[in-house]
Design goal:
CATH class: Mainly Alpha
Order of helices and strands: HHHHHHHHH
Number of strands: 0
Enzyme class: oxidoreductase
InterPro entries: Ferritin-like, Ferritin-like_SF, Mn_catalase
GO molecular function: catalase activity; metal ion binding
Radius of gyration: 22 Å
CATH architecture: Up-down Bundle
Keywords: Calcium, Manganese, Metal-binding, Oxidoreductase, Peroxidase
Number of helices: 9
Protein name: Manganese containing catalase
Distance between the termini: 60 Å
Largest sheet: none
Structural class: mainly alpha
Number of domains: 1
Shape: elongated
Length: about 210
């Protein structure tokens, strides 16, 4: 159960609409490294996590990613609000407009729709945490790319905030990886089968057993 606070985690107040900019930022709503995939990733992975403190962090970050999804949606909405159909087409938003008008719908900047294949929930905690760290770095890289092409201050400020949170989440997942490895009996990379790290018997050993 979540308690919804009726304000954005970071304010979005865009004065100048720009549909082309909205198309770029759309990727962080439903793209391969966007906030929708992030929230679903962590809120799904938490069920396989056996350690209470780590499960709590996955829940916290997954919940925050939902808040980030809302920020991105607000940016896209404000960047397209009030534009005519002709203006949207002129600014490269025509294909999206035909399918969705200016409603918010999850897709990448290139138009590929969101699907669950864009995030992993493997059930092995070490595998999942490496996935999470990589995901945060990929999201950070996407925000870097957005900041290279977007110059509007009103858009850049919330994007910078979102980028900073990706860095923090990466660090938190690094902490969880350390905690998890310390709790595993052999401190190895296999949560459910430490026997994988036992050296295989040599040919001579096998001959002796015959």
């Amino acid at each position: 159960m979540w308690i919804y606070e009726k304000r954005l985690e970071f304010p979005v107040n865009i004065k100048e609409p720009n549909a082309q900019m909205a198309q770029f930022i759309m990727s962080q709503y439903g793209g391969p490294d966007g906030e929708m995939g992030a929230s679903m990733r962590y809120l799904s992975q938490r069920y396989a996590m056996p350690y209470k403190e780590c499960k709590g962090t996955l829940t916290d970050i997954g919940t925050e990613e939902l808040a980030h999804l809302e920020i991105v949606a607000a940016i896209i909405h404000q960047l397209t609000k009030g534009l005519t159909a002709d203006q949207l087409v002129e600014q490269g938003f025509g294909p999206y407009y035909i399918d969705h008008t200016t409603g918010i719908w999850p897709q990448a900047a290139g138009g590929i729709p969101f699907n669950a294949c864009e995030f992993q929930s493997k059930g092995d905690v070490i595998t999942d945490l490496h996935e999470d760290m990589a995901a945060e770095q990929k999201a950070r890289s996407t925000y870097d790319n957005i900041l290279r092409v977007v110059k509007d201050y009103d858009v850049c400020e919330p994007i910078k905030f979102l980028r900073e949170r990706e860095v923090v989440h990466y660090q938190r997942f690094g902490e969880l990886l350390r905690i998890t490895q310390e709790k595993l009996d052999s401190r190895n990379f296999y949560a459910f089968n430490p026997a994988f790290d036992v050296p295989a018997p040599s040919c001579q050993d096998q001959m002796r057993q015959m």
